[in-house]
Write a structure and sequence with these properties.
The structure is a homodimer of 161-residue chains. Chain A is α+β, with helices and mostly antiparallel strands. Helices cover 17% and strands 39% of the residues of chain A. Chain A has a 7-stranded antiparallel sheet. In chain A, strands 6-7 form a two-stranded antiparallel sheet.
Chain lengths: 161, 161
């Protein structure tokens, strides 16, 4: 059995993905965040979301240590903001200088200018490969604007395959 | 801390989702399948996919027992086929009377008329709530037609929130 790598790439890139800003806060109360794309729902009751996070990033370790994260849904015209949270940052949390945010009930960053955001408590994970799959229970939800969300396909970027 | 259920529903429904036919085969070599929507990627290397499956379905138990599943990517004009695999079936596997398929190297159904399909070996799962989150390593990939894939939003259906 051999894996056809080209077919695999084409097929995995057909999975629709969004673009979200994941927010975290470490034990020193420093916020950090990154652009997440590999997100899906994991249950209705309780409401679960699933997010795969690159193992090398600084936020990955913070989620492992704190067992919580926020997920902010970007508006369809916020591609530039998604780009800010993709790029390397000069210091932990400095990407958040680009946006206004509040802290939710779990103490996690919720962007003021966005569709809205949820805060999640990690209830399980699968660590295998270059990402960790975190499963989080949605504990709070803050809706700012019920407008169309940004999706990966519309940006012309690829993340997957 | 109270969860705003309406905000939660609106925000979770902003997560883009596709529509896939998940195929399984039980210990008696009977094939079965269902329409899956909560799917995302979980790693580049090895290539992992993540799929949440309703705990009550017959395919759920088969995946738990066999630790493998296929995921077929539907073409944008195959909404009717997705509907067939949503509905209750008269007997295990009878939905597959509606389509031609071959068996991949892992013995799992790959639809002949589709964008293509992958076969996955389960490497981990998180069981919590009304679905199980399965993480599978992509072992084979069969590309039929590199055309636009069906997505949930275009169908007018909701599954999430």
């Amino acid at each position: 059995m051999t894996l056809n790598l080209e077919a695999k790439k084409i097929l995995l890139r057909k999975i629709p993905h969004g673009l979200f800003i994941c927010g975290v806060k470490d034990e020193k109360n420093e916020v950090n965040g990154f652009t997440a794309s590999w997100v899906t729902q994991g249950s209705f009751n309780p409401p679960l979301v699933v997010m795969a996070v690159r193992s090398e990033g600084s936020s990955h370790e913070i989620i492992k240590n704190t067992n919580k994260f926020s997920l902010n849904v970007l508006k369809s015209d916020q591609k530039d903001l998604a780009a800010v949270f993709f790029k390397p940052q000069v210091a932990l949390g400095s990407r958040f200088e680009a946006v206004e945010f509040v802290l939710g009930d779990l103490g996690l960053p919720i962007l003021k200018d966005s569709v809205g955001g949820v805060e999640c408590a990690v209830i399980g994970d699968v660590t295998h490969g270059d990402h960790t799959v975190f499963v989080g229970e949605v504990k709070t939800a803050y809706l700012n604007n019920d407008v169309e969300a940004l999706n990966l396909n519309s940006t012309g970027w690829n993340y997957g395959g």
